[in-house]
Amino acid sequence: MTPDNGTDPGRWPMSDGFDGYAPRGGDSPGLWLGLSIASTVCCCLPFGIVGIVFSALAMGARDRGDAYEFERQIVRARGWTIAAMVCGVILAVVYSLDR
User: Fold this and answer.
1) Collapsing DSSP states into helix, strand and coil, what is residue 99?
2) CA dist., res. 55 & res. 16, Å (int)
3) pTM listed for this prediction
4) Helix 45-64 vs helix 67-98: angle between axes, to the nearest 10 degrees?
5) What is the DSSP-derived secondary structure letter of residue 53?
6) Is residue 87 included in any domain, yes or no?
7) In terms of residue numbers, what domain contains 41?
8) Of 13, 49, 69, 73, whose CB neighbour count within 10 A is largest?
């Protein structure tokens, strides 16, 4: 088995200096994982949990070197985390207007 030299379009070469960022877009799964946890605690539990799951899947894909799967999962993590934050803000506004 030869080492991956980056010729496969679905993978990128791994090295000890891999900084954890996507080759395109610059999203870090650690960022979305942290925001997902915060949105779970503060905003919207169900959507935040889904964001945590997709962030963890993105981290696993990144560690395997699977760029395609990483991109898929990080987009999903971002979407669910943003949805949790938006729902939390909407619920807070509705609650404050109700008082």
Assistant:
1) coil
2) 22
3) 0.70
4) 160
5) H
6) yes
7) 29-98
8) 73
Q: In this structure, what DSSP letter does residue 61 have?
A: H
* Phi (first) and psi of residue 11, to 5 degrees: -135, 155
Long-range own/partner contacts, residues 1-9 (CB < 8 A, 24 or more apart): 4/65
Q: How far is CA 62 from the centre of its chain?
A: 11
In a domain, 14, yes or no: no
- Number of domains within the chain: 1
Total count of residues recorded for the chain? 99
Cβ-contact 38, 52 below 8 angstroms: no
The Cα–Cα gap between 75 and 97 comes to 33
- Residue 40 domain flag: yes
pLDDT at 1: 45
Averages of pLDDT over each 10 residues, the chain, 99 residues: 52 49 61 90 90 94 92 94 93 89
21 vs 2: CA distance, rounded Å: 24
**85 within a domain of the structure (yes/no):** yes
Alpha-carbon gap, residue 45 to 24, rounded angstroms = 30
